[in-house]
Write a structure and sequence with these properties.
351 residues; alpha/beta; Rossmann fold; seven-stranded mixed beta sheet; six-stranded parallel beta sheet; binds NADP nicotinamide-adenine-dinucleotide phosphate; binds zinc ion; NAD(P)-bd_dom_sf; Zinc-binding dehydrogenase; ADH-like_C
Amino acid sequence: MFSCTGYAAMAADVSLKPFAFERRDTGPEDVRIEILYCGVCHSDLHQARNEWQNTIYPCIPGHEIVGRVAEVGASVTRFRKGELVGVGCLVDSCRECASCKKGLEQYCEVGFVGTYNGEDRQGRGITFGGYSRAIVVDQGFVLKIPETLDPAAAAPLLCAGITTWSPLRHWKVGPGQRVGIVGLGGLGHMGVKFAKALGAEVVLFTTSQSKVADGIRLGAHEVVLSKDPAAMAKERGRFDFILDAVAADHDINAYLDLLKLDGTLVQVGAPETPLPVSVFSLLMKRRNFAGSLIGGIPETQEMLDFCGEHGITSDIEMIRMEEIEVAYERMLRSDVKYRFVIDMASMPAGA
Ligand code: NAP
Ligand code: ZN
Ligand code: ZN
């Protein structure tokens, strides 16, 4: 074991603070990573504050991790010391079930092991995430980051990137389709970039007047202010596909109404309370309402390679570790442009 410093939530209603803990030594299949940057996902906030009622404390969030390989285990063949690597939301799964065999580890039938707040399969306790100086991860769950990408701006690809990429690919979004992205936060802004890169006609729906110009700059063909009923009414029945990345309670029926016959609304945002669905909106036009969870390891690598080829990264605002609570409060006000990333050099040396 070696000692490590992180930032942990000790309970739902207190600020994150420095926390000393131990990480396992590098086993034969393990990669030890010195963390350079960690993106701040809205899920970190949901989890730190126990909004999904499943948080185990202390909780060290962070699942958009980019760093350099510091050490590899004896059986590790895919990575070498010094390489730029990433870790997303998953650090293990059963590897035997039908989902795992298809590379869909996020849908592992016995449950994947989350990068934080997950129960280790070898009985080594609850996992601690990327708000920390180092992490040790099985090589099967480590991703290669193209060296051409800015490592800080690549960090959000590990969750915000793959979570939007996976449904866009699964539902075969591409040229000739009119695609809506709802909410311009961390996920939403990656959704806009990817839908554009895949050739779709992209319409951004935002509640924030201040994000309209950015929506166009990021690749949207049109931006609709979702608080304007007349603007929403004009869009009725015009969409093949809509990706909803809103973190809070909101009216999804307003978006179901925008789908064409057989159109699909995929929910990736995970508000803490259930969202009522209008059955009539679904059945009147044989519309589909679906969900999607992050993405599997092979698909995450495919997305990273695509980003390397096309020069796609996240638009980020770098913060110091001690600014995390300010970042959370700004996320709650939708004041995020468009992902906070923690510079891990700012982590206090001892706790
Ligand atoms: P984020 O950066 O905070 O962005 C959320 C955006 O939603 C806001 O910037 C805002 O955009 C919009 N919004 C917020 N409150 C709203 C409201 N009351 N009504 C309408 N729109 C509102 O969050 P994120 O990190 O992108 O995460 C989004 C959600 O996805 C979270 O719930 C997160 O837990 C979840 N998530 C799911 C997965 C998955 O696998 N399915 C993976 C990662 C994250 P505008 O200002 O443009 O309106
Ligand atoms: Zn996330
Ligand atoms: Zn499995």
